[in-house]
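S1.2 Input.
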Amino acid sequence: MKLWMKIVLPLAVAVFAGSAFIVFLSGSGSRQAAASEGGRAHVSATTGATTAEEGVLSVPEGSAGGVAVDSAGPEAASGVVRLSGTGEGAANENVGSRPGANETGRSDGSLANAGLVGSSELQVEHLLREKRDLLGVDPVRITIAATGDFLMHMPVVDSVKTSQGHLFDLIFESVAPIFEQADYTVANLETKLAGSEFGYRGFPLFNSPSSLAGSMVRLGVDLAATANNHTLDMGWKGLSNTLDALDEAGLPHIGTHRSAEEQERVHVVSISGVRVAFLNYTSSTNGMPIPSDHPYAVNMMETEAVLGETARARSAGAELVVAVVHWGEEYEREANEAQRTLADRLLRGGVDVIIGHHPHVVQPIRRLTVEREGQDFRAYVAYSLGNFVSNQRWRYADSGIILLVDVVKKNGKVRVEGVRYVPIYVQKGFKDGSMSFRVLPVPAQGLPESDVPFTGEHKARVPEVWEELFSHLDNPEKGITAVPSVLQGN
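S1.3 Output.
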């Protein structure tokens, strides 16, 4: 989630320009929408006009002034700004669920405190597309980020224990700027947050402090994928408690459910005017049966189930479908035949991007051209992102990638333009005599910054991680590249 979105944006002035109003948002750190540039502003405006359609902003880095938003016409003199989060509705569209939301649960707390929240106006999210075109803010560009596995072994958990509880934030501090530059972030939560009464533990039955959820929110995670082979580690009650803990932290979730109604909902979020659906399925629960009285608890990997939800997502207005899947063989660096076959079936069936987890090592990223209804579509599959954080210290498992999916919407059509990746390394070392873990972005040359002293082992391993992942993944001709800032060693 972008950092500037977290700043309160007071409404300043509305100006009529031609047949469209322009609403300016001013305040500390605000930027102006440039008509000739693509944009990623995770903000939409709603007005009182009943025929309004969606307007999308362009917010280039380093610009000055305000943010211009097209409105529906002279009668729609008042505009309301909102951020996306979770909310009710046929498509379970996200309309803001961070802590501090007003009583409707429909707005980010900063906006509520600024007095910018209406009631029924929050239901209206579309401004006239033709007015958007007149203002020249097409195309729209967004970036969706994804992490690998939050695999919370006890050495990781114990390293952040304090007299005030478990404070995980420092582990992730070095990579937080990456998520601030993304428009939306999904993470694989491969542990339970069942509560201290279950006892905190690591492999083979995971349970971690619920404070992890708050740290994920502060890191910039917008969505937790919870369907994986450790989903039932603490049984039905542990599953339910985990979802309660995520709700309390304001972190939306997919993949597991407390009711049949929850399972039926399709998670669709509007990101700068691009409606994206996120699905989550797992191929295993480590042999633990789904409770017979809660058959809806876990999304199990069945091709027809995934395609069925994909179809419901499209019917709910999704323009892009992202499937987060738990599959493959642990510690294998290549996808197996079952993964490749399933990927082909899902991509041909309407999924646009597949993000894989479970192997705990990075597997290749592939761009595939698939035919749908007689037309060719470009789709991507990242078979495994590896670990995001863990205590696994052997080669390949001590690292992973942050995936960045670049999406463009032009002339009403949405496509994936390409994917980028940031190699990461999990540093384990001593700081002030205490064991510490840090998730570090890996540069092409040199060492990343860390408050934990580098050992000789770290200094040797970091360059190896870059070379391993760069040679394993990079394919510019297919739109698969390391991010430029990492290539430059910044």
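S1.4 Remarks. DSSP finds twelve helices and 22 strands in the chain.
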